[in-house]
Amino acid sequence: MNELEIVKRLKEVMKRAEQLNRIQLVVGIPSDENSREDSGEITNAELGVIHEFGVPERGIPERSFMRSTMSEESENLGNLAKVMVSECLSGQITPRKAFSQIGAYLKGQVVEKITDGEFQPNTAETTRRKLAPVKDKKKWRAPDANKPLIDTGQLRASITYEVRENES
Q1: ∠73-77-80 over CA atoms, to 5°?
Q2: pLDDT per residue over 137-151, tens digit each?
Q3: Alpha-carbon torsion 44, 99, 64, 114, what sign?
Q4: Are 151 and 138 in contact, with CB atoms under 8 Å apart?
Q5: Burial of residue 145 (number of CB atoms within 10 Å: 0-12, 13-18, 19+)
Q6: Contacts from 147-151 at CB under 8 Å and sequence distance 24+?
Q7: How many other C-beta atoms can be found within 10 angstroms of the C-beta atom of residue 16?
Q8: What are the φ and ψ backbone dihedral angles of 133, each rounded to 5 degrees?
């Protein structure tokens, strides 16, 4: 490879690095347009915050599904990010595709944590409420409705990711 080819290649890598730097990945529950079918008073984002941090004064323990997943997946995430950045800088994938693949991975891990995670059990009162017959035939409960964090499945289904481009 001659000097001109090296300079061109370096410029391409720098351009992709700048593109990577302008992109942001957000994983979680968007607050806009994320209402719950069973309640006009609380959104999935608000419910997520309640469970993530707990509300001890209301008897709701912390059941972290976002922060704990990010912590538990830090090594895997680091390895995935290395691969994605390498593929992006080499021109195999776009920066948006790299972040989308990381987002899809994290979303899957958070959903899995809600489904299979070990959380403080529901109170007897919550268990009775969740196992009670649903009066409104249009509403339903998830098959695993007695598990913490899972009632109708709406919270779990609201987990998503967004790839955003910063203005700069």
Answers
A1: 145
A2: 666 666 666 788 988
A3: positive
A4: no
A5: middle
A6: 147/115, 147/119, 147/122, 148/63, 148/119, 148/120, 148/121, 148/122, 149/51, 149/63, 149/65, 149/114, 149/117, 149/119, 150/114, 150/115
A7: 19
A8: -60, 145
Q: Give the separation between CA 104 and CA 94, rounded to whole angstroms.
A: 15
For residue 55 the two structure tokens come to: 């509300």
| Cβ-contact 69, 113 below 8 angstroms | yes
Tens-place pLDDT, residues 35-85: 676 666 788 999 999 999 999 999 899 999 999 999 999 999 999 999 999
Residues 146 and 127: beta-carbon distance below 8 Å: yes
C-alpha span between 107 and 162 (Å, rounded): 10
| CB distance 36 to 43 below 8 Å | yes
